[in-house]
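thought: fold this chain, then report.
action: predict
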Amino acid sequence: MTILRGLGAALLVLALGAGPAAGQGTLTVQVTTEPPGLDLTTNPSSAIAGVVFYNVQEALVKVDRHGKLVPWLAERWYTTDSKNYTFFLRKGVRFHNGREMRAADVKFVLDRAVNPETKHPYRVQYENIQDVIVKDDYTISVTLKRTEANFLWTVARQGSVIYPREAVETLKSAPLGTGPFTVGDWVRGDRIVLVRNRDYWQKGLPRLDKVTYRFIPDPNSSLAALKSGDIDVSAFGLGPENVDDLKKDGRFQVILGDSTNDVTLSMNKAKKLLAEAGYPEGFEATFKVAPQYYYTVRSAEVVVNHLAKVGIRAKIQQVEWGQWLAQVFCLKPCENPDYDMSVIGHAEAWDIGNFANPKYYFRWDNAEFQKLFKESEVTVDDKKRRELYVKMQEMLADEAPAVWLYMHPRLVVTKKGVTGIWKDLPIPSLDLSEVGWQK
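observation:
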């Protein structure tokens, strides 16, 4: 894999020269769900990433709008064996508190992710890190315990954002980073306001002075807000039944693309009941869903109707997003997921490793799958690695630790004149750094 063997600089795509004048107005964006917090290092919610990731905080490596890995806070990197990495940091990049980002900050972030006491939501992705050594203020080396074909993806994930150690205690409500915006205000239950970072390291960006996130979970309310002019962008949550009419309305532009948001049906207690004999009359089960994501309720209604035909009497229980994360996803201090069935979209890319984690909320423990996954992680040859992924995918289809229902499309509607919105969504981030109004 070229990206893992060569210099990261070969992928450099940034244009740091002259750009459009920064600060060209404001934007109001609708999202369905209010984040349960703003700390990407303690909570895996995509609602947090949609606000913070690449708007407020950034990582060493970035997944761009085409799904490619590109240098970001690290201007380049070097590895010959996919086990020992050296990252060369950009000079002059400053945190929102004014202090320059240094290699010691990167070490603090990675060491904290590895530390089990910090309860990083995806600590398993960092367990392979053996040592992090600061060479100088702008050079840092990472030694892994074993070869890892996906390590660059690990440092590009939302849980790998770089922040100043002195701000770690305020990450949940007022995260500091190096991004194009700072958190200006958070009115619980209503809005989050991001304000332009005037010292952002990319010249000419961002193109907006202020971005306001509005939390509107209901598709009909989102449509009404768009048509009345209360919002400029519906980023997620409009029903697909509205697409044709919006395409005909000259006031708007409809963006249809691909995403990594695979919607799955997970079964916990219901799976055990299905596996047991002696239920000729069927049984009762509860569907826990988060109505902040409209598709979960709609999908559950369809599934419940089909289950009724085979004697399974399922009822839908709607819970708040924070409750869903605590009970179903089983965030710490939860020890065992509390649900029968649930539906949710998994927005994170390259997440097949979740199925190799017996403590993931699916609670699927398959030694053969875990062995295949471990082998894939140390296989850097593309062809051989693809063959292993085929085997894993076939096993997932046969064993069904979760049931894939569909891929949720990327559907964004904006007012005419809004530019820079990504067509596809390869990561759970609403990157607004290049978004602006057409002159």
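thought: worth noting. The two ends are 42 Å apart (CA to CA).
final: tokens above.
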